[in-house]
Fold each of these.
Amino acid sequence: MSGHALLDRVSEIPTVSLSALLDPGSLEMDVDASSESSSSSTNLLYEAVASIRHACLTVGFFYIKDHGVSDAVMQNAFDAIKKFFAQPTEEKRRLDATQSPLYRGYNAIEDGKHNCKRTEGYRDAKESFVIGMTEQHGSSPMHGANQWPEENDELKSAIEPYFEAVRKSARAVARGLAMAIDLPENYFLERLREPVAQMVMLRYQALHEVATNSEDKWLGCGPHTDCGFLTLLAQDSQGLDVFTGGEWVCAPSKPGHLLVNLGDMAAYWSEKASVKLKSTLHRVTNGSHARHSLVVFMNPDFEASMDIPDEHAGDSVERKSSGEYRSAGHYLLSRLGLMWLDDKS
Ligand SMILES: O=C(O)CCC(=O)C(=O)O
Ligand SMILES: [Fe+2]
């Protein structure tokens, strides 16, 4: 495809500490200016919000640290999913995604059913295992059962704590994001009570494993933007490239960090806001080793309205499309081509 990605520009992807955003008290501390520690905490909060704003206006990607997901929880999740993928195909096929009305479960390489858009003439050399949210109180056709191995709960007990911890970090990001675009601090949080979150675990083949005997050309994951709200990624090795400033830039894994990016829903939702969020093109290239990644797609409650009240809108409000969808869930159904699920809502 289009040449090598640049590693020397990775510093353009900012890093944000979530410590002040994970702490719900830090905003109130602002009024208590007498304490030094409270003002340094407030500074940390505004620093985080300013870097999120900068990232959203420029690259559309940022690393997060102090995100509350422990190394042990992340390592367990990677170990468990590597073990799952290392099984024979017949074993993995017992959890085939085609058995699930929500397409959750295992997708083999040859199925080609992954979250990314297909690139004409190319196939993605990766397999995936997908889970999503189960319990919910409101009406959402995008919540439902996951498929797990029946014999033992090793996979489930390693993946669920990771998914939960990352959703918590995603809420902290959402809080910062609201402040970054001049919305009330809780604007997104109030719409993430029963989020339509999904976790996609991926194994990309090493180049030497990629089939060469067919007409097909292969990629890890073709260039695409994510269609949802926020994506939080952990990767065990390099492979992700981000298109920024007219070039592909490497976004390698960094110990202790997660990588966040904004999807098309965030861009669409912010059309009326004072700051427009950027959904950036990215791709994955296969390398000399198999690569694993854990991707959490954090989307709002199915029935969440994407309307932004006029008092929080930007000056030059030219509302193009943001009123087109009844709710965030309907936006997703339409983008994922799952409109038929709507009959159930
Ligand atoms: O595996 C990765 O690093 C990125 C995956 C991705 O972009 C996606 O699933 O949308
Ligand atoms: Fe993506």
Note: The domain at 3-336 is CATH 2.60.120.330 (Jelly Rolls).
Amino acid sequence: MRIDIVTIFPDFFDVLEVSLLGKARSSGLLDVRVHDLRDWTHDRHRTVDDTPYGGGAGMVMKPEPWGEALDEIARDAASRPTIVFPSPAGAVFTQATAREFSGLEHIVFGCGRYEGIDERVFDYAGTLGDVRLVSLGDYVLNGGEVAVMAMVEAAGRLIPGVVGNPDSLVEESHEDGLLEYPSFTKPSVWREREVPPVLLSGNHGAVAAWRREQQIERTRARRPDLLSDQEGRA
Ligand SMILES: Nc1cc(-c2ccc3ccn(Cc4ccccc4)c3c2)n[nH]1
């Protein structure tokens, strides 16, 4: 998978050089290219924003640098990319979105800042790729970079070969629509707190049943909305 990220804070993504995704990049599983939007400006101040038509507080990102950046990236692409813009007004990103993204050949992420990007950019981007406005959740960030970092990690780790043991992906929260069961390791007693005896029993059937019950109990207590989704699927 190829990932292009366009941002006015390219250094923000230096962290993608380390950890799992760093290894995936060096092994060629992931081809991540970070671009500074200001490289597509032509004035002395490398201007990317201007005042909003119609008035109002804050600034809006100018369309011209975005148009030139997307043209160059899409032109250089082997296949029609999916172009993802984080937005508070987007569809919420879920594990299903992460799974969908992990199967794509080429994703271009456009990180907005200020009060957002001139709306015409999303329309123009539709001539170059499949445009998706995606929200990380119902809270307000200052820009798209944190959302893109989360999406790249959530999707990148699902790419076959990125995570060492693929079995570990199956029993995670949200993978089966439920929250994950609690985990324990040595010592069996820690500060007078014991590991649940069933986990020390060696009875794999009993362990599996206990873990499933824990998933359902936790989901009911913390995320009843997920249970109704499950019941809907039943
Ligand atoms: N889930 C989620 C995504 C964002 C997000 C994404 C991109 C941008 C670009 C500028 N801002 C700041 C902004 C705040 C509020 C209203 C308009 C713009 C962004 C916020 N916030 N929350």
Note: Residues 86-88, 112-113, 115-116, 135-137, 139-144, 147 surround JDQ (CB under 6 Å).
